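Final report, closing paragraph on structural work. Over the funding period we assembled a curated collection of sequence-structure pairs, and we close with a single example.
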Amino acid sequence: MCGPGSSCTIKHTQPKPTAMSTAAAKAVEKAQAKSDAWLEKNEEAVKSLRSQHLAVEAELEAKSIELFAAFYAKRRAETEKIPSFWLRAMVNHPTLAVFLQGAGDQEALTYLTDITLVRGGDKKDLREYDLIFTFAENPYFTEKTLTKSYTVKKEEDTEDEEDYELTGSVSTISWKDDAHNLVKANPQKIDEEEDNMEPGSFFNFFVKEEDQFAVGSHLRDEILPNALEFFAGLIDDSDDEFDGDLDDESDEEIDLDPRPKKKSKAYAPL
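Its predicted structure, as stored:
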């Protein structure tokens, strides 16, 4: 008998063909053919319904942004008083922690006072978003804010509103001197043939267009809406929602396979 902690194999047996099952199979096949014919004839009607569905989702998402804005403003007023709040929240995330191992990264991020998520951009397209990092005066760079923007990459060969990719922006960081230039000191190195990588400095996230390891979506979908929980260590590393393993070994391997596209969640700007 299968029980907790034990392994077992579930056997699937195919029913023997009978006159009744054969007749049923033919009935199902006939019904499927009718369904296919209807779909081919009414393809535009189906597209219209799907578009209406997406419009309702967008309306709900916009309303969610409006309703949560006040709460996130209150949260920001409190988190700005907490030393290294955002650094600690990210370090407690099993995937993002891997990208915070570059020499100087964590010290630089102690000056991070806020991360703001802005949805929609200039075109009010809620698939697009900006991540705005606000910093106190620090010895590393002169910018008060660093922004990573994601916009929809236009595809000429698709009309599917749900089939899209996001492309990231590139920011220039004005390092105060070479000694504090974390990107130069810790470049990101990717060897696709050997299927391994060296994350380098976290600040490569801002200066590289491609977000190959979905750092932005981890921030948008996991860190930002659950910042207090990650800061307090209340989210278990084994939670399926935040699947990832953090190993103390310096030669940790990271999956370089492209991540599947994910639909944006209805989270408000912080």
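The chain has one domain: 40-242. Confidence is low (pLDDT under 50) at residues 3-7, 240-270. We thank the funder for supporting this effort.
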